[in-house]
């Protein structure tokens, strides 16, 4: 596995309550929210 900076558009907000999984060489992040509501 190798870290690389993803290309994004706009501002990225902080996340809480999410889940992540590594499958092969890919890292997937799903769910979560801003922890305010």
Explain this structure to me?
The protein is 0% helix and 43% strand. The protein has a two-stranded antiparallel sheet. The protein has no helices and 2 strands.
Quick structural overview:
The protein is built from no helices and 2 strands. It has strands at residues 16-23, 26-33.
| Class based on secondary structure composition and strand pairing | mainly beta
How do the strands line up in the largest sheet?
Answer: 1-2
Question: Can you tell me the overall shape?
Answer: flat
Largest sheet: 2 strands, antiparallel
Low-confidence stretches: none
**Rg, Å, rounded:** 12 Å
**What is the count of DSSP helices, taking H or I runs of 4+ residues?**
0
How many strands in all?
2
What share of the residues does DSSP label as strand, in percent? 35-45%
- In whole angstroms, the N-to-C terminal distance is 35 Å
**Strand and helix order:** EE
Give the proportion of residues in helices: under 10%
| Chain-averaged pLDDT | 86
Write the layout of secondary structure elements.
Elements: E1 16-23, E2 26-33
Antiparallel strand pairs: 1-2
List keywords for this structure.
single chain, 37 residues, mainly beta, two-stranded antiparallel ribbon
């Amino acid at each position: 596995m190798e870290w690389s900076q993803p290309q994004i558009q706009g501002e990225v907000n902080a996340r809480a309550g999410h889940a992540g999984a590594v499958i092969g060489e890919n890292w997937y992040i799903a769910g979560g929210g801003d922890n305010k509501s």
